[in-house]
Specification:
Blueprint: H1 9-12, E1 21-24, H2 34-43, E2 48-51, H3 62-67, E3 71-76, H4 85-92, E4 97-100, H5 103-115, E5 120-122, E6 136-139, E7 142-147, E8 152-158, E9 161-162, E10 168-169, H6 178-184, E11 185-192, E12 194-195, E13 215-218
Parallel strand pairs: 1-2, 1-8, 2-3, 3-4, 8-11, 9-12, 11-13
Antiparallel strand pairs: 5-7, 6-7, 9-10
Helix pairs in contact: 5-6
């Protein structure tokens, strides 16, 4: 029987190469695969391009990866927040590149990669610096900008439950970018809080089918002490 269950985080990330493009799920703290990011830091891959909603908070998760000097470029929507001082310092020092992408465009560019779409036209960004150097076309009297798909070598996503075939369900808002990132990557690594038997997940509630997932690793559920929020 096919089993995509990985024995450890270390094993699930062993083949991430220097220079890889890594899609990282999460919206703020919701659905951020911090355990996998910590595993990536320990694994040692460098010169990475990271695609995510933001550029990290404080000194954990993505910020820790940045602080470790492993990231060459960040593609995200919200690079600067009150506690994004790690990215801010690196960017101002010229130690990391930034490609700023509006959030809707980011999600659609990732989805396009997973759906096999070569590009799409959007009105978002027309007439701004974000459209500089991109093809512009008039469609039905409106100006549109051509956006390209974002493909990943790896996707790191955080799910709630999974089975040995890689079928996944998510916990409420923790779903966010997980499903489209899983579709857009060559290798998807999903952390889950519960591994269930085949058939235990109702096919009607499976969000990410196992065809888009290569590795599943079980992690313990943590609780943020300050807020009591489970993740």
């Amino acid at each position: 029987m096919i089993s995509k269950i990985s024995p450890s985080i270390e094993a699930s990330l062993a083949d991430v190469k220097d220079g890889a493009t890594v899609l990282v799920g999460g919206f703020g703290g919701a659905g951020m695969p911090n355990e996998l990011i910590d595993g990536l830091i320990a694994q040692g891959a460098s010169n990475l391009t990271v695609v995510a909603n933001n550029a990290g908070n404080a000194e954990f998760g993505l910020a820790a990866l940045l602080k470790a000097g492993r990231v060459r470029k960040v593609i995200c929507s919200f690079p600067r927040q009150a506690d994004s001082y790690v990215f801010d310092g690196l960017y101002r020092a010229g130690k990391v590149e930034l490609e700023l992408v509006p959030q809707g465009n980011l999600a659609e560019r990732i989805r396009a990669a997973g759906a096999g779409i070569g590009g799409f036209f959007t009105r978002v960004g027309y007439g701004t610096e974000l459209a500089k150097g991109k093809e512009v076309r008039e469609i039905n009297g409106q100006m549109y900008v051509l956006e390209s798909p974002i493909h990943g070598d790896f996707a790191l996503v955080k799910a709630e439950r999974g089975d040995c075939w890689g079928n996944l369900t998510y916990r409420m808002a923790a779903r966010n970018f997980g499903p489209v990132m899983a579709m857009a990557a060559k290798t998807t690594v999903a952390s889950v809080h519960e591994v269930v038997e085949l058939g235990e997940l109702d096919p009607e509630v499976i969000v990410t089918p196992g065809i888009f997932v290569q590795r599943v690793v079980k992690i313990a559920r943590s609780t943020t002490a300050a807020s009591g929020i489970k993740s």
